[in-house]
Amino acid sequence: MAADPGARGSADTRLRRGARPATAEPHAAADRAPLLLSGADVVLPTGTVPGGRVAVDGTRIAATAPGHAQVIDLTGHWIVPGFVDLHNHGGGGASFAGGTAEDVLRGVETHRRHGTTTVVASAVTGDLDFLARHAGMLAELAQQGEIAGIHFEGPFISPCRKGAHDEQLLRDPDPAEVRKLIDAAHGHARMMTLATELPGGLDSVRLLAEHGVIAAVGHTDATYEQTLRAIDAGATVATHLFNAMPPIGHRAPGPITALLEDERVTVELINDGTHLHPAALRLAFHHAGAARVAFITDAMDAAGFGDGRYLLGPLEVEVTDGVARLVEGDSIAGSTLTLDRAFKRAVTVDGLPVEDVVAAISANPARLLGLADRVGSLEPGKDADLVVLDAAFDVVGVMRRGAWVVEPGAAGQRLD
């Protein structure tokens, strides 16, 4: 059964030292005094500015701060854009895949406290009518601005590479059924993962592309040649590259090779140290380049919450030492990752430049979602979505649309 949120400490108790959840504010961000965040290393699209400044006026980043702006000294820290998660099934003990609206909001808030200011809610394989009804609820949250849209991961995936999906509910990608889910999302369908080699796969990819929905190749048993045909039909994303697809072979290069080598494709990576060996991550960055990588969490309910038993769709999951596996079959069942951990690991373990990590965790997913005019980088006129990191790359502050989700607290000395 799913975990009881009251059974363990909430994610609040695991916030990094120096960070604290913002208290409820009676006034909108637009009514607040302007802010000037000063002294941090600021990562801009053009590179890192040591001792830089970010001006916030209302809900937006401003070109300059007025003279009466409140100054917060963040010397010794980093300021990076808010994280954007393309692929996320839940967190904080709550599910995006089958929970109520309140559950989804609790999961969204958990990930916000870890720096993810923009999140797409991912569904898992289920009965088609249930998925359509659930998409209607998620669409209302998207309309309210709480989530950035809906990702359907299943049911149109391969039983050979099903991972943590119920095989009895899998089906071939019938374009009419694909259209049913698109319509149920009321304009908020952002991505669908397909095994494009299945009957109806290529026609479904074309249908998704025609409706402005990202077609993602994943949970697939496709060959190299079949994957190339899917890309030519309009597929532009690799769902958690390397996972739930055939490995690279010297005579059968498979989907991984096709997805890495085609410049039209962005590859998702789960950088939690469980799903990928560091060498596999470096291979992806080397061949795709930083501009074609998107870090995702593929998180399930346990993210930011703790070990225990959970449900992922209809399947029972055991989380032990932060690793989620199906109770029956022992397959990895999503992750307990939050994007702040993916960021820190990328810099401190994988040795990636901070600028490349920012591209993979903010700019690239924002571009894929069609939101680059609003989020994904620190530029005047965009939403004031940002994350403050200390020198060890731990989160000490999170701002979303000009309001602190996590106040820097002791990390920043307020100078009035």
Draw up the topology in text.
Layout: E1 20-21, E2 35-44, E3 47-57, E4 60-62, E5 70-73, E6 78-81, E7 83-88, E8 90-91, E9 94-95, H1 101-113, E10 116-123, H2 128-143, E11 150-153, H3 175-184, E12 189-194, H4 201-210, E13 214-217, H5 224-233, E14 237-238, H6 254-261, E15 266-270, H7 278-288, E16 293-296, E17 308-312, E18 315-320, E19 323-326, H8 339-348, H9 354-368, E20 386-389, E21 395-400, E22 403-407, E23 413-415
Outline:
The chain is α/β, with parallel strands linked by helices. It is built from nine helices and 23 strands.
Structural class of the secondary structure composition?
alpha/beta
- Summed up, the domain count is 2
Distance between the termini: 51 Å
**How many runs of DSSP E, i.e. beta strands?**
23
Structural shape: globular
CATH superfamily of the largest domain: Metal-dependent hydrolases
Beta-strand percent range: 25-35%
Q: What is the C-alpha radius of gyration, as a whole number of Å?
A: 21 Å
Low-confidence stretches: 1-21, 23-27, 410-416
- CATH architecture label of the largest domain: Alpha-Beta Barrel
> At the first level of CATH, what is the class of the largest domain?
Alpha Beta
Structure annotation, total helices: 9
Task: Tell me about the largest β-sheet.
Answer: 10 strands, mixed
The proportion of residues forming helix, as a percent range, comes to 10-25%
